[in-house]
Specification:
alpha+beta, biotin, 6 helices, 2 domains, ligase, binds biotin, single chain, biotin--[biotin carboxyl-carrier protein] ligase activity
Length: 260
């Protein structure tokens, strides 16, 4: 039995055997006024959504698919800072939960991929919406590969994916993992609002393997910017610098915000 030690996250939990997408379901609940901390969990998703319009492979019985509704009331200036750090802080919370529950160290790829040995262990999809009375809310969707093996992935995903079981050789109790996940995410989100994000920014940066690497980031309008990732900006953007095209030119520096 897992005891939920959170204050708000998971105060209401909706469990489904199968849904199209827990994010879609949570979004509908939030629009209808579901409160902060409401969680939607599914054993299987038939239309799991990934970032940038991708799909998230969501077979039954082995993984974790959940979405958390969060709201925050604060002045606009603080709100935009909070909002831009939300995906990063969630990723940090998930990484800390995986480390705590499965003794597995995970890396973060900006903005919010969880990787082990460069393979994807989990991903996060944050979506913004508002209720009929214009109260803004966020839906944070988390997908984690837990107890599957290589054969559980379709051929085309195998090389780039991994699971907790593949990395540790052990099966994990998904209920325990979920309660740890909600607890660590709650801690990270609280730190974002109460204490500023000093600890979050530091702990995130420590885990982030993107810094110092050559990256290619897609920009709006089909363009892309390539360069070396230098830093996480105070607003959670990734600072990328590229060498001048011509001799004597100046390096170009670009700050890239995470897109859904
Ligand atoms: C990514 O592209 O890396 C983000 C993947 C997010 C997947 C999770 S699974 C639970 C929630 N419901 C969805 O439809 N997507 C997110």
């Amino acid at each position: 039995r897992s005891v939920l030690a959170t204050r708000a996250l998971g105060a209401r939990i909706e469990l489904h055997r199968q849904v199209d997408s827990t994010n879609r379901e949570a979004f509908a609940l939030a629009q209808a006024g579901a409160e902060h901390g409401t969680v939607v969990v599914a054993e299987e998703q038939t239309l799991g959504r990934g970032r940038l319009g991708r799909t998230w492979y969501s077979p039954p019985g082995i993984n974790l698919y959940c979405s958390v509704i969060v709201t925050a009331s604060m002045p606009t200036t603080q709100f935009s800072q909070w909002l831009s750090w939300l995906p990063l802080a969630t990723a940090l919370g998930v990484a800390e939960a995986v480390e705590g529950a499965a003794s597995l160290k995970t890396d973060l790829k900006w903005p919010n991929d969880l990787l082990v040995r460069e393979r994807k262990l989990g991903g996060i999809l944050c979506e913004s919406g508002s209720t009929a009375s214009s109260t803004p809310f966020q839906v944070i969707g988390i997908g984690l590969n837990v107890n599957g093996t290589d054969e559980d992935f379709p051929q085309d995903l195998r090389a780039a994916s991994t699971t907790i079981r593949q990395e540790t050789g052990r099966l994990i109790d998904r209920n325990h993992l979920l309660s740890r996940l909600l607890l660590e995410i709650e801690h990270c989100l609280n730190e974002l609002t109460i204490e500023g994000n000093g600890r979050i920014a530091m702990a995130y940066t420590r885990r982030c393997i993107t810094l110092g690497r050559h990256v290619r980031v897609s920009l709006a309008g089909g363009k892309a910017f390539t360069g070396i990732a230098q830093a996480i900006e105070p607003d959670g953007s990734l600072q990328v610098a590229s060498l001048p095209r011509q001799r004597g030119g100046r390096p170009e520096v670009c700050s890239i915000r995470a897109a859904d």
